[in-house]
Amino acid sequence: MEYVIELENVKKKYKLYKNQKERLLDLILPKSYGEEFYALKGVDFKAQAGDTIGFVGINGSGKSTLLNIVAGISPETSGSVIVRGQTALISVATGFKESLTGRENLEMKCLMLGFSKQEIDAMEEEIIEFSELNRFIDQPMKNYSSGMKSRLGFAISVMVDPDILIIDEALSVGDATFTKKCLDKIKEFQQKGKTIIFVSHSNYQIKQFCNKVVWLEYGKVKAYGPTVETMKAYEEFIAEFNKLSKEEKKAYQEKHKFNN
Amino acid sequence: MKSMFKILKEQFQYFYLIRRLSAFEIKSENRNNFLGSSWEVINLVIQVAIYWFVFSNVMERSDVTLANGEKIPYIFWLLAGFILWVFFFKSTLNSSSSIYSRIRILAKMNFPMSIVPSFVIFSQLYIHIVMILIFVIIFHIGGYFANIYYIQLLYFIPATIFLILGLSLITSTLSTIVRDVHMLLNAVLRMFIYLSPVLWDIGKLGAPFGDIVKLNPLFYLLEGYRAAFFGSEWYFITHWEYSIYFWVLSILIFIIGSNLHLKFRRHFVDYL
Predict the structure, then answer these.
(1) Do B178 and A27 touch (CB under 8 A)?
(2) How far apart (Å, rounded) are the C-alpha atoms in residues A134 and A153?
(3) SS3 A145
(4) How far apart are CA A154 and CA A165, in angstroms?
(5) Count of structural domains within chain B
(6) B162 or B68, which is more confident
(7) Is residue A93 predicted with pLDDT exceeding 60?
(8) Is the pLDDT of residue B194 over 70?
(9) What is the pLDDT averaged over residues A122-134?
(10) With an 8 Å Cβ cutoff, are A87 and B109 in contact?
(11) Is residue A201 part of a domain?
(12) Phi and psi of A167, rounded to 5°?
């Protein structure tokens, strides 16, 4: 079976500058200034069509960085990234223009995703219905609550029918009925054999949906495998980690985070 | 050269997107005002009124003589140049900040980043065209009627857009990397109005200063606009050497801009 996502030894380097002066010197001089920080330290990961993969890991483990690389938003520093198919990233309140109405934002987003006017007209009603915004769709988005924004964001992303759906914590907003609706939609995607990447701090949701789990720790894949085993190991680790004292936690983080 | 054609190809390929996004751009900027987009026009009229008051009443500027010997009252001379200056100033400034202020929304795979400055420039173009229509009415009231030389606007408007587009590819890239570039540009442009024949007839200063200021491509465009509105000459033909200079410079700027843009565009999001 063909892989839709293939990542090989992917690294992502960020530069940490103490001040603006260092930043400027680093830009113009060939010598390197500032501290290098690897958010990803060589990640290998493959996904087949139809996989639903959960990303888990404590804060700072590189989940969001990895998502952004798979979604094509930020470039990798080294390594090879192959993504076959259209991706759609859903995260809490992703880039809307606050002064425009929901309907205008809807059109703008779809345009930027590469849809034609006719295609957008055909999808519009369905998206509005899914988002449950009804009459509010013609109000400026600055008056929307965060739940309304992410509902619209979710509605657009699923209706454009991507090959790879990437969900970043987006289901933590919205009430139980909307979450249910989203989860139903995700199931529909799974049945169509699409690939889904799912980041959530809710272990329950991960266990419910994903058939595979990637456990990231400080920029490395600590474990990748079937949900049941990986989640068991992860939960044991979390339980252990929580038992540590504050100082021990800090020491653990320091040890792994800056160690390339 | 290759990168210039790549950027130009993107502009044509995504022209519909440029048009739609520029319409949203105007809408979103003026959504909160009851008068909406008309504020863009009202603002400009007020600005012109101030310049006119200061320069014709307080400082008593005399008439300006055109190439064909005709004398033009200062206020009309000012208007014809000011309209182009405002278009140049606003679109250059807005397009410089266009990428870094939108990167969060636009950082999507396959989105042709090079059309971002273009749609910002286009949103200013609509206002520019409305302003030209209003100014033409003013010129008619002043006794300067529509004439055959108006046709050269169809050459000078695209020439202006090409120059601004080339500049914007440079400035939008640089100010995404170093935000100060945008601030610097703002300061430089405010100075530039005095180095261009907008408020005063700088070209009449005599050699060598009067010739040096002609290196400024805006000089060419401003004189072209005036030649069109006052029907004095076919500026781009009578000054063909100057036309060649303008296009060589503009294409050079465009090539530099395209190379810069293509070199950095994949990494824009990392510079936030």
Answers:
(1) yes
(2) 15
(3) coil
(4) 10
(5) 1
(6) B162
(7) no
(8) yes
(9) 87
(10) yes
(11) yes
(12) -115, 115
DSSP codes of every residue in chain B: -HHHHHHHHHHHHTHHHHHHHHHHHHHHHSTTSTTTTHHHHHHHHHHHHHHHIIIIIIS----EE-TTS-EE-HHHHHHHHHHHHHHHHHHHHHHHTHHHHHHHHH--TT--TTHHHHHHHHHHHHHHHHHHHHHHHHHHHTT----GGGGGHHHHHHHHHHHHHHHHHHHHHHHHH-THHHHHHHHHHHHHHHHTTTSS-GGGG-TTHHHHGGGSHHHHHHHHHHHHHTT---HHHHTHHHHHHHHHHHHHHHHHHHHHHHHHGGGGGGG-
Q: Which of A29, A40, A111, A112 to mutate to test the interface with B (most CBs of B within 10 A)?
A: A112
B106 and A95: CB-CB below 8 Å? Answer: yes
- CA-nearest residue to A104 within chain B is B24
Q: Average pLDDT in the A189-195 region?
A: 87
Measured between CB atoms, does A113 come within 8 Å of chain B? yes
Q: Does B272 touch chain A (CB under 8 A)?
A: no
Residues 233-262 of B with CB under 8 A from A: none
Residue A99 lies inside a defined structural domain of this protein: no
Total domains in chain A come to 1
The interface predicted TM-score of the complex, written ipTM, equals: 0.76
Could you tell me the two tokens for B142? 């002043």
Which residue range forms the structural domain that includes residue B26?
Answer: 2-271
Where residue A167 sits, what CATH number does that domain have? 3.40.50.300
B108: closest chain A residue by CA: A73
Q: Which of A104-118, B107-121, B199-213, B218-232 has the lowest mean pLDDT?
A: B199-213
A97, closest residue in chain B (CA to CA)? B28
**Which pair of tokens denotes residue B230?**
């006052």
Task: Count the Cβ atoms, other than its own, within 10 Å of residue B98.
Answer: 26
Segments forming the whole domain that contains residue A222? 3-85+163-257
Position B75: which residue type? I
